[in-house]
Amino acid sequence: MKLSRQTALAVAIACGAIAMVSAPLDAAEEPSMMQPGKWQSTTTFSKIDMPGMPPQVAGMMKKMMGRQQSVSYCVKPEDIGRPGPDAMGGKNAKDCKYEDWSYNGGRMRATIVCKVKGQGTMRMKMAGSGSPTAYNADVDTTITGSKMGPMHMVGKVSAKRIGSC
């Protein structure tokens, strides 16, 4: 269960961070993707695959599907477009890098890769739509290099600004 919770939290935090860096290249043409303030991000997984997992772990994973994993975080004005590794992948992540990202006309797309302590490498793709105060996206995450073997998760994330920090 520890692996599942840490992984879910890392994915939820990474989803919020991807939206932070999805600000347009020319802020004069379009408002930034996220307004500074307190945000809440909720991720729900619809598919979790882990080939070769023990039956008891498979049962726990199936119970996780459909459950919402929420995380709140503060987006400071200086964070827009420049979140650090902790924001990208959670407290156990390091060496986070964006393979690609874009935000045009309210549509966002991103791929982030992080090394997650004790869990291998997380590669997450996200595509969706958003405004300065909310976003919704589909998430496809693969984790490799874990002691328990590879993991693949598919889900949705939604987030909204809920106030000031």
TrEMBL record:
Pfam families: DUF3617 (PF12276). Residues 1-27 form the signal peptide. Keywords: Signal. It comes from the Bacteria. This is DUF3617 domain-containing protein. It comes from Novosphingobium marinum.
